[in-house]
Amino acid sequence: MPFATAHTVSLHGALGHLIDVQADVSPGQVGTTLVGRPDASLNEARDRCRMAIVNSSLEWPATRRITILLSPADLLKRGTHFDLAIAVAVVAAAGNLPRLALEATAFIGELTLDGGLRSVPGVLPMVLAAAERGIRRVFVPEPQALEAAMAPGMAVLGMRSLAQVVAELRGEEVPEAAPVAPMSGSRLLSWRGSQRLEEVDLADLVGMADPRYAVEVAAAGGHHLMLSGPKGSGKTSIAERIPGILPDLTREESLELTAIHSLAGALEPGDGMLVRPPFSAPHHDASKASLLGGGTGQVRPGELSRAHAGVLFLDEFPLFRTDVIDALRQPLESGEVTVARRDESVKLPARGMLVLACNPCPCGDYSPHAPGNACTCHEVRRREYRARIAGPVADRIDITRHLSPLHPHQPRDGFGARESTAQVRARVEQARERQAARYAGESWRLNSQAPGPLLRERWPLPDEAQRLVDDRVYAGRLTQRGATRVHRLAWTVADLQEVDRPGPAQVDVALRLRTGEPLLLATLERRAG
Amino acid sequence: MSAADRDRLARVALGRLAEPGDPRFAGLVAELGAVGLVDALIGQRDLGGLLADVAGRVEAMGPERELERAERLGIRFLIPSDAEWPRQLDDLEGSEPLQNRCGVPFGLWVKGPVRLDELAGSVAVVGSRSATSYGGDVAADLAAVVARAGHPVVSGAAFGIDQAAHRGALAAGGRTVAVLACGVDRAYPAAHKTLLDHLGAHGAVVSEVPIGCSPTRLRFLARNRIIAALTRGTVVVEAAVRSGALNTANWAGRLNRTVLGVPGPVTSAPSQGVHQLIRSGAATLVTSGAEVLEMVGGAGEHLVEEPRARARPRDRLPWRDQQVLDAVPVSTGARADSIARTAGLGLLEVRSTLTRLERAGLVVAGEAGWRLAALAHT
Question: Contact B173/A407, CB-based, under 8 Å?
Fold first, then answer.
């Protein structure tokens, strides 16, 4: 029978579709047609595959009509990773491969004219999608075998050329082939930023008891955080120490994040699975597409998704473009970002912690210490700046803290606790375990992700504690959305204090965290009222 | 045995017999002297029902032993006839009781190198145990500034404001003294053992209560009068309506000391007591260490410059010139006659004023007329 089917995967955002590449070789007008909504780069696959097959000393059925269908035919397909599946399907249709060898097997890779197999972006999400659809074996370009092997229960074969793939499928001895260059270019710049972040520790910071406690709560429950304070008050220093106090990613998060980074082409060969929470700090010039995701044709995850399960730090938040700030609203609520391109609308996970930092005024010299106040901002500009902070995004921020510059005596204060990152992380891990136990079987993992109505119904606050929240709402000092956030925060505070259920004391802390009021020293010193 | 030694032993004994600040004892010491009073009690003289109260305690007295033990622990016992005795405590003599506590202490147990006769210019920084981080920061900052200026800081040893004040003063390299409601050898609260040890080695820890005694509510109230009396002024940072710090402030007011209060947000419960003090006129509002120094320092010392907004160029203009300047548009130019109409001034005067303002760089003449220069915006 002059007909064969090989499987591959087409990615639409984080959604992977299993694609059947069906090749039919039969008598008729000589030529090759590729149908099933291929885009331009995919259309070129015909030529790449023909030359690759010929140059691999295999037979291209040049005297017959070849029809290649990418099914389901209504999905728009793009990318170059279909090459390998097309070539294999054609070789099999020409009767040169045992048909059984193609069962439950997927093929991913771009072909060169001499039959070499080149890396493509997004291998991990493709392999994950294939695994879910019953594929048990996958052929990938050799440099990406490690990445593909992260998918559980998948037999991964890393190959250098089409000839090797065919030999493997035939059960023959695999021939030698030249190594394939990895996908990314060589590193022209070696950026040591990520290493630097691993070296910073909370123990380096003097004082700052209040923001220290705030980042601990934020990390424990995955709450969004806003740090406001004049220049030099330590906003950036404390923000970049947040990833350190987050526990290692869960297996699920790790897969999601690695898949996103793979999709973004940001995964270095040999990186393996990402296990530490990411930290992403885009500059305030960033466009909407770079922050939320976009790209022409194929969807590229934005910084928001790349910080999934980690920290997205927006320094100088009011300087970000208004459309960018507004666009953050929906993802902040839902934990996922919807990117609509021409042909498709794609959902990407975006459950990172958002950490915003802002100055009290545009010049950054406004100081709460009356004698030290050197602000030169015009009243109108300061008002505009404040308005940007108080916008709709701020209402979606769980914790607001005001930082003040260090007092001159503080560095010599020998009695302040200077806990290390490791000590805080241990408590954050415990608090997260309590949440995991409470939310076992639910679709969310952390307090900050718990849906408001369910929270009120199944994990309500005791009457006495709820009254504290209601009082604020009736006084007009807390919105309904704010009340829900206080409710979630109170649970995180209780989890950190290892209390079974939040009471008035925990709600009081939550209200203070939410409204930016100063915390009680007793809370910071971890002693009972 | 000298008279002073006998007086000292009698005062140690009284410390065991009486609860601190008991008004009956205060009166009797003034009348009979410490030695006379102890002799009377040992001699079973019933002084208005006092004997029944102290009967159980007479047996346990052993003032010589107690002084020896104190010496071993590096603790000294001061009495009014000592050179190191802080004279300002004598202001408590004959004071009306507050919460049924009053009087000059019989003596003071002291541990630490700071001499109590150097506390004449000291400042008490007191406040709530359940303070906020705002209160803690302000207290530490105030104490640091005050201590750096050479004024010792006095406070209790509680959580919250007390410990923040000591930490600020210590970090600034100043002198600081804790007055306790328990024996100076005890760490209360236990979490402050390190702090109290440090104060015992570098500052001073003071109490009128004998060694080994535990704190009680009454002893805290008695202690507050000593803090107020020892210092020239008392700063209250965050005190809820029922805070003991208000008791200290009351004593300070009674003893004609300066009472100062640091305000907080009007919505904050831990600041309510301070706000009440200020509202009733019992305390003066202060916002910084410099302002505290101005209030407790001698006349003309530590004067604080009034905070004021930066001077703008237009502020120095005569009123009529400002009237013209206000009428000059920001961006689109206007002719002199239109400006004169807007300003409600004569055209001749406006013309000459505009020329003057142009020389001062406040307005510019464009093609469409006069408009404000950049300098006038600031």
Answer: no
